[in-house]
Amino acid sequence: MDARKLKIEAAAEALTHVRDGMRLGIGSGSTAEEFVRLLAEKVATGLTIIGVPTSERTARLCVELGVPLTTLDEVPELDLAIDGTDEVDGALSLIKGGGGALLREKIVAAASQKMIVIADETKVVETLGRFPLPIEVNRFGLGATKVAIAKACADLGLAGPVILRQKNGEPFVTDGGHYILDASFGRIPDTRALSSALHAIPGVVEHGLFLGLASAAIIAGPGGIRTMTI
Ligand code: 5RP
User: Fold this and answer.
1) What is the mean pLDDT of the chain?
2) What is the mean pLDDT of residues 33-51?
3) Chain segment 3-16, per-residue pLDDT in tens
4) Which residues catalyse the reaction (predicted)?
5) Structural domains of the chain in order of their starting residue, each with its CATH number
6) What residues are labeled active site?
7) Burial status of residue 82 (CB atoms within 10 A of its CB: 0-12, 13-18, 19 or more)
């Protein structure tokens, strides 16, 4: 079964959790975009929702397809966020940010009563860390922040390349105007400790570990759909 079909199946299942009148957080990435397409079809046939997009790219797609949008300033509390992921483990801890939208994604997830993750089976892991951890950093002091990250991680027994993300030969710049460092540590046994250590570094804006935010993960595989909960 092709990858796009699995993404559409996970997105379609997530859509069954959307009710009339909901305030929705709308994720970023190719799986979330499948959700936006299906959501737009429902909106066109009368579903009333209001959405907060997690990236400029998602916002453009929503506008193009007629999904009504608002902001967290207008609507600071959301009912449900639906988003993709780069990795999910059995505790529904996530690594996100492969598309560079992790900061807005985390703000939106935290403002939502529930977060449902949509993904295909390849994203499910036993221990997070196969996917490089995206760390959003302020452009000012990049070199010092990089050194501080390496030191903090070494203290936790984590080592590996920490690479400045590039796009078209230039540093990738997030919607918030920051850079992203992708840290390839391999397995991360203590995600809480790493999260705290990274948050203690002033140049770190946010990181892609989403801990305690997701309430369910809808996983599509060749054998069908399954929902992971905790
Ligand atoms: C963007 C994200 C995406 O949700 C994540 O990268 C998954 O994307 P895709 O559905 O394309 O695999 O975190 O920042």
Assistant:
1) 97
2) 98
3) 999 999 999 999 99
4) 105
5) 3-125+211-222 (3.40.50.1360), 133-205 (3.30.70.260)
6) 105
7) buried
Q: Per the structure block, which two tokens stand in for 218? A: 């809808």
Instruction: Point out the ligand 1 atom lying closest to the alpha carbon of residue 30.
Output: 11
Write the DSSP symbol of residue 225. Answer: E
Q: Which residue has the tokens 């000012």?
A: 140
**Atom number, ligand 1, closest to the C-alpha of residue 97:** 14
Q: What is the pLDDT of residue 1?
A: 63
By most ligand atoms within 8 Å of CB, the mutation choice from 6, 30, 116 for ligand 1 is 30
CA distance 16 to 79: 14
Distance 103 CA to ligand 1 centre (A): 12
109, containing H or E segment? helix 102-110
Torsion of CA 72, 75, 80, 85, to 10 degrees: -10
Tell me how long the chain is. Answer: 230
Regarding pTM above 0.95, the answer is yes
Beta bridge partners of 171: 166
Question: Which residues have CB under 6 Å of ligand 1?
Answer: 27-32, 83-86, 96-102, 105
Q: What is the mean pLDDT of residues 72-99?
A: 98
**ipTM of the modeled complex:** 0.99
Beta-strand ranges (E) seen in the chain are 23-26, 50-53, 78-83, 87-88, 94-95, 112-120, 133-137, 162-164, 166-167, 170-171, 179-183, 204-207, 209-210, 216-221, 224-229
* 3-state SS assignment for residue 57: helix
Q: Which of 201, 196, 202, 188 is nearest to 89 (CA)?
A: 188
pLDDT > 70 in the chain, percent = 100
